[in-house]
# Entry
Amino acid sequence: MTHDHVTRLGHIAKSVTTPTCPPIYQTAAFDVPDLDVLHAMIRGEAHGHIYTRDSNPNHQALAEAVAALEHLDAGAVFSSGMGAIACVLLGLAAAGDHVIISRSLYGRTLQLAAYLERRFGIAVTTVDVQDPSQFRAAATPKTRFALIESISNPLLDVADIAAIADALGPVPLVVDNTFTTPELIQPALHGAAVVIHSASKYLNGHGDVMLGVAAASAHLIKKISEAMTIFGINANPFESWLCLRGLRTLPLRMQQICATTVRLAEFLHTHPAVRKTHHPLLPDHPQHTLATQLYPQGTGGIIAFELRGGGQDAVSRFMRYAHTIPFSPTLADTRTTLSHPASTSHRYMTESQRAAAGITDELIRLSVGLEPFELLRDELDAALRAVVS
Ligand SMILES: *Cc1c(COP(=O)(O)O)cnc(C)c1O
# Structure
């Protein structure tokens, strides 16, 4: 009796129908029929995948979806948001080149820029995102790009993307659109050349994936993807598939999150136990006018607020009373979470640096999820009252 070896069994037969949902291509490599096909693929004359570190249908599906939402031609996915930012830096700048970055970037992004400056000789100039003329003044013939965030963490500085792109002239602007997503703003329509995401946050939106995405022209994505492939900072197929699944409900999630967030910001703004509430759509926010112009649908799910005194002890008490709103060092989950910037994202700063950045010990950051407004209002109210009593 002859039989096939187990390693040759269990492959899926070709079907005249196609799956309604994209399958997961959980495979390291793809079988190539012959050398003619291999060469045609490498020359770009035939479409196909060869090795998942380089490309995979699930990577491609997610990258193309995000690129389309961002009004850009091409995209690539990475093992995390930091992976995307690292590949943009490594793919677009080399030793001896120069980049401009905003002072208020995500903490790890600032660390990455300092690391690449120290170890790889990429010169970095740090500027104030609120002053576009600083971008113009910092640009030199060696400047490869400038990097900003659409809205910063945790005090929610709103970047005037078009004014910065204009000040930079021919220097490409890279925008980290993690906080605002293409549902609320498409930075490319304001002059950005590259848009990046920590897809671990809103694009996936369910708190169960680590992933990054970059979108740009095909020319720039080729350079960025080269770094991804060489360093092996690729995403995996299953997480790419999960993220595409999450992405399909991005419009609904962002609509609800924005609506709840504005109402909570207004509630916190007038609460007697709160000294200050930071939200771009509150009238006392420094970029309120710009925010209402750029973000007619809302600015996302982040609010920061300061307790009225009591230092970190008061914050700890607040966390214990608000135990249904977990203290979790992430954002953009389906559930509402809170964080304490002074002891997490801004911990590495000295006390005086934190003071200069406006990060007080009593500052709490809220990432609003999908719970009803009334539930969150009542839980926050009870915890705030308990802290001051
Ligand atoms: C979380 C985050 C990152 C880093 O993304 P990871 O997926 O955690 O690596 C980058 N930028 C912003 C604005 C973020 O919030």
Summary: The chain is about 40% helix and 15% strand.
